Structure formats: C-alpha cells, structure tokens
Amino acid sequence: MDGIQELRAKYLSQVASAEGAEALESVRLAALGKKGEISLKMRELGKMSPEERQIAGPALNGLKSEIDAALKARKAAMDDAALDERLKAEWLDVTLPGRARAKGTIHPISQVTEECAAIFADMGFRVAEGPQIETDWYNFDALNIAPEHPARQEHDTFFMHRAEGDNRPPHVLRTHTSPVQIRALQDQGAPIRVIAPGRVYRMDMDVTHTPMFHQIEGLAIDKDISMANLKWVLEEFFSAYFGTKVKTRFRASHFPFTEPSAEVDIQCSWVGGQLRVGEGDGWMEVLGSGMVHPNVLRDGGIDPEIWQGFAFGMGIDRMAMLKYGIPDLRAFFESDLRWLRHYGFSALQAPTIHAG
Ligand code: 2NL
C-alpha cells in the first residue's frame, strides 16, 4: 500500500524528536488516536476489496505496533533521563555531620526536688501529692492553727473568691504542703513515712519573697519516733544533698503544729565571699521541725496515745540556691547568669557546683 513507508518515517522521526511527555502524547494522538492518521486509514480497510485488504491490513497493523513500541520506548527513555536528573540533583551526603541542636536542661527546682525525693526514698520516705487549692480546714484547722492566727487573715493568704450565697467551705491556695501530709495520714494511717514537695502560695512580694515558691515537708510517724531520729534523718539528708558531711544545730522554736519545735541550722562558713556548706563554725537556718502536735495527729485520724513522730519543712528554692552557688536571695534576683548557666544556655559555660 502506498504511503506506509512515508507514514512510518514521519511518525518514527516525530517520536524520536519529541521532547517531553506532552509532545509525545501529541504524536500518539496524531498517529494512533481516534482521529489519528493511521486509525483513519484502518477505517478505510472496510471499503477495500479483499485482495487489497489482505495487503493493507497486515501492513497497517504492523505499522501501528511499530509506532506503539517506539512511543513506549521513547517514554521509557525519557523517564530514565528524568530519574537520572533527579538522582543527580537530589543527591544527599549521608556522611555529613548532623546539625547540633541546642538542648535545655531540667529546671533547677525540678532537679532539686528530684534529688531530695531520691535521698529521702533511700530512708524509706515516699512522695505524697495533693491539691494546691485546699479547704481552710486542711490548710489551717487540721494543723492546729487557731482562727485568730495571723496567717488566716486575708492579708497573708490567697482566699478563693466566693459568690454571694455560695456556702461551700472556704478554700485557699495552700500556704504550705502540710495538708498533703494530713491527707496522706488520713488515707494511709500509721506507721507512715512521707515527703510532700510542691508549690505553695503566700501573699508576699519583695526582693527576697515571691508569692509562689516551693516547699518540701517530711513526716515520720511510728510508735517510738523521737527527735533523735529527726536529727539523724536531717543530717543524713543534708550530707547526701551537699555531698559532704554536714552537722546540724537545733534551736528551740514554736510552730502551732509541732511540740516541741526546733529550727535547724546547717554548718557553714564563708570563704572569699563564697558560702561553703559543711565547713567551719558558722550556722545557717534552713529548716523548721518538731514532734507532731497531738491535735494534728488526731486530725490526721490517728491516736496520739499510740503514735508519735516528727515533721519538718524547708524551702526548695533556697536549697537550690545554696547548692548551685547563689550566696543569698538577692543574688538570685539580681544575677540571672548563674541560672542561665544552669539551664544550659548555650552562650554560657557549664555550671560550677561547689559544696563543702
Ligand atoms: C518552716 C516550718 C514546718 C512542719 C513544717 C508539719 C506537718 C504536719 C504536722 C506537723 Cl502534717 N508539722 N510540718 C513542721 C514544722 C515546721 O515548717 O519554717 N518551714 C520552712
């Protein structure tokens, strides 16, 4: 049949020179599409005589297959070339060093809380937790704090607002973590050994006070717990915390919730303007403590004729400053650098920890 060779040459050359998938598709449509040149020719087969058809039929079919194969081959070649391009362009050097990320560190208050909890855990104390919004019964009455005590005045404590006619018992932001220990005593009974770390709130704001701070209290109740046990536990604690033997000094004091009560100092000295804990003949007050008052034991649901024990409370913020080298509360507020160093702020160097 005339023209087959011409068609063949025309379309094979168009396939060979087509650039891109769209151009190739246009060639396919022009040759093999519904209205393509070869398709139209095939439609004409029906009008031919059987002899003519016997020649033209196979020739057109052969041409169709040949162009089809050429289209597929060209498509495959173009895909290969595109893949090669991508492989060249998207090359990744997996041997390059990673990009270092600035890491933060645990907050000093959290770190010190965990350190303290771990030391007391070794002496059999478990961590107890409780609400930061307390009833005034748990925060005050249960601790033998009389209604006329100054801490119970609006001036010193954050009282929750009550709408007119709301007769629920008054609630406060806890002023110490003692209520946590009352709840632990009620829930678990005696004997008991717990510590209660957490946030506490007092209406105080000046250069040495913030309205929210952190406290850790401890409570040990059994049948024959004494002040001697208290002194041993505290000396063990301070020595472990500061990493050096630390002596304690007890001074008689008064708290409504303990009787007798003692304020506890730790041994320290000042060398070249730097505080050194566990050295020398100076003393620094760090803690309040005593034997739990019988009224408080009763409020905790246990019989003071059978059970007795000690309790203590100290400030976590202060303990953090002492250990991480902030000499007094004012330095904490005036010098952020030491805290930033502790946080691992990358422009600064590692913290220097000194004790003893
Ligand atoms: C201080 C004084 C203290 C307590 C806290 C306490 C708890 C219960 C019963 C009796 Cl459940 N006492 N806690 C006892 C003595 C002192 O803290 O000046 N802290 C910084």
Helix and strand succession? HHHHHEEHEHEEHEEEEHEHHH
Mean of all residue-level pLDDT scores: 88
Total beta strands = 10
How many DSSP H or I helices? 12
- Which cofactors or ions or other ligands sit in this model? 2-{3-[(4-chloropyridin-2-yl)amino]phenoxy}-N-methylacetamide
Q: Main sheet? A: 8 strands, mixed
Q: How would the global form be characterised?
A: elongated
Q: What's the end-to-end separation, in Å?
A: 108 Å
Global Rg: 43 Å
How much of the residues is beta strand, in percent?
Answer: 15-25%
Helix content: 40-55%
Structural class: alpha+beta
Unreliable segments (pLDDT under 50, ≥5 consecutive)? 345-353
Outline the secondary-structure elements.
Elements: H1 4-17, H2 21-32, H3 37-43, H4 50-89, H5 108-122, E1 126-127, E2 133-135, H6 136-139, E3 171-173, H7 178-188, E4 192-201, E5 212-222, H8 227-242, E6 248-255, E7 258-271, E8 274-277, E9 282-292, H9 294-299, E10 308-315, H10 316-323, H11 329-334, H12 337-343
Parallel strand pairs: 1-4
Antiparallel strand pairs: 2-3, 4-5, 5-10, 6-7, 7-8, 7-9, 9-10
Helix pairs in contact: 1-4, 2-4, 5-8, 5-10
The structure holds 2-{3-[(4-chloropyridin-2-yl)amino]phenoxy}-N-methylacetamide.
How is this structure best described in words?
This protein is of the alpha+beta class and 356 residues long. It has twelve helices and ten strands. The chain has helices spanning 4-17, 21-32, 37-43, 50-89, 108-122, 136-139, 178-188, 227-242, 294-299, 316-323, 329-334, 337-343, and strands at residues 126-127, 133-135, 171-173, 192-201, 212-222, 248-255, 258-271, 274-277, 282-292, 308-315. The strands form two sheets. Strands 1, 4, 5, 6, 7, 8, 9 and 10 form an eight-stranded mixed β-sheet that branches. A two-stranded antiparallel ribbon has the order 2-3. Strand 6 (248-255) and strand 7 form a beta hairpin. Helix 1 runs parallel beside helix 4 (50-89), helix 5 (108-122) crosses helix 8 (227-242) and helix 5 (108-122) packs across helix 10 (316-323). It is elongated, with a radius of gyration of 43 Å. The termini are far apart. Mean pLDDT is 88; it is low at 345-353.
